[in-house]
Amino acid sequence: MEQPRNRVFSGVQPTGNLHLGNYLGAIRNFVPLQQTHECIYCVVDMHAITVWQDPKELASNTREVVAAYIASGIDPSTNVIFNQSKVSAHAELAWILNCVARIGWLNRMTQFKDKAGKDREKASVGLYAYPVLMAADILAYRATHVPVGEDQKQHLELARDTAQKFNNDFDAPDFFPLPEPLIMGPATRVMSLRDGTKKMSKSDPSDLSRITMRDSADDIAKKIRKAQTDPDPLPEAVEGLAGRPGADNLVGIYAALAGLSKADVLARFAGAQFSVFKPALADLAVEKLSPITGEMKRLMADSAYIDGVLAQGADRAHAVADPILGRVKEIIGFI
Ligand code: AMP
Ligand code: TRP
C-alpha cells in the first residue's frame, strides 16, 4: 500500500456559531493547500455530539460548515468534503486506537479539562476519548499534514504519539505517518473581542465576543467598535503589544485579513488611536467577509446541492479509508 506524501486532513465541528477564529485559524488556510496537496475536509459531527447537540440544529450546522468550506474557496469537485458519521472507518479505527492510546495521555489534555469544567464526573465518555477519535480521523487516511488553529496542537501531539505507538507495538514501522500540524498565519489563536485573554469560542455566552460567519456588515462593525481595548495609541513595533491583549488581538485580525504581518500593520498604524484603527479594521473585515457570508447564505438555501456534495465526498472518503482500515485489521490480527 503506497504511503501518500502530501495528504491533508482537517475537520471542523458543526456546533453552530462558526466564527472569525474558525475562519482565520483554520478554514482560510485550507484553501491554498488545494494547489499542493490532496485535501480531505471533514465536518466532524461525531466530535460535535461529545457535548449535547439539538438534532435539528446539528443537521443545519453540518450544512453550514460545508457552505463555509465552499464559500471560502474549497472546490468540492477536486477535494473531498464529507461528514464524519457517514464513513464508519472513523468509529472503527477510533476503537482500535482507544486500545493503543494511554489513559495518562488523555489525562493531560487541557481541552478536556476546559470543556468538562468543574463537574468532570458528568462529562460524556466521548468528550474524554475525543482526541483519540481525532487521531483516527487523520490516521484513517494516513494523512501527512493537518492545518488547525493553535488550540489543537496538543491533540495533534497525541495523534502522533498514537501513530508511533501503533507502529511500534505491531512492528509495522512507518505504517502510520506521524502527521504534521500546519499552524499558519498571524491569527492562529483569535481571542474574544470582549476579553483579549480568552479564546474566541462558539460557546461564549456573549454574542459580542465573536464575529460569526452569519453576521451582517452592521453586526461586524458594531462588534469591532465595541471590542475591548485600552486607551493607548498603537505602538510602532510588535514588542509594544506585550501586555495589551485586546490591542494585540485586533492587530492580529487586521494582519490576517489583509494578508500582512503584524509588523506591517503597525508600520501603517503606529501612533493611531483606536478611534482610527477600529473603523479601518471594520471596513477591512466587511470587505473580506461579506462575499463569503453572502455566498454561504446562497448555498444554505440549496440544501440539495450541499447534500450532494456530502454524498459524493463520503463515497470518495470511503474509497481512501476502507483499504487502510482493512490493512489495520490484518496488522492487529482480526480475521
Ligand atoms: P472547532 O470549532 O473547535 O471545530 O474548531 C475548528 C478549527 O478552528 C480548528 O482548527 C481550531 O483550531 C480552529 N479554531 C477554533 N477557535 C479558534 C480561535 N479562537 N482562533 C484560531 N483558530 C481557532
Ligand atoms: N478537534 C478539532 C477542533 O475542535 C476538530 C477535529 C476533529 C479535527 N478531527 C480532526 C481537526 C482531525 C483536524 C484533524 O477544532
Q: How big a fraction of the residues is strand?
A: 5-15%
**What overall form do the CA principal axes indicate?**
globular
CATH superfamily of the largest domain: HUPs
By secondary-structure content and strand pairing, the structural class works out as mainly alpha
Bound molecules: adenosine monophosphate, tryptophan
Average pLDDT, rounded to a whole number, is 97
Count of folded domains: 2
Radius of gyration: 21 Å
Number of helical runs? 13
Poorly predicted segments: none
Please write the CATH class name of the largest domain: Alpha Beta
Order of helix and strand elements from N to C terminus:
EHEHHEHHHHEHEHHHHH
Q: Bin the helical content.
A: 40-55%
CATH architecture of the largest domain: 3-Layer(aba) Sandwich
Description:
It is a single chain. The protein is mostly helical and 335 residues long. The protein has 2 domains: 7-188 and 303-332, Rossmann fold (3-Layer(aba) Sandwich), CATH 3.40.50; 207-297, Orthogonal Bundle (Tyrosyl-Transfer RNA Synthetase), CATH 1.10.240. It contains 13 helices and 5 strands. The chain has helices at residues 20-33, 45-48, 55-72, 89-98, 103-107, 110-116, 125-139, 153-169, 217-225, 245-258, 262-269, 274-300, 303-332; strands at 7-12, 38-43, 80-83, 145-147, 180-182. The strands form 2 sheets. The protein has a 3-stranded parallel β-sheet. The protein has a two-stranded parallel sheet with strand order 4-5. The longest helix has 30 residues, at 303-332. The chain is globular and about 70 Å long. The two termini are 19 Å apart. The model has no long low-confidence stretch (mean pLDDT 97). Bound molecules: adenosine monophosphate and tryptophan. Tryptophan binds next to strand 1 and helix 7.
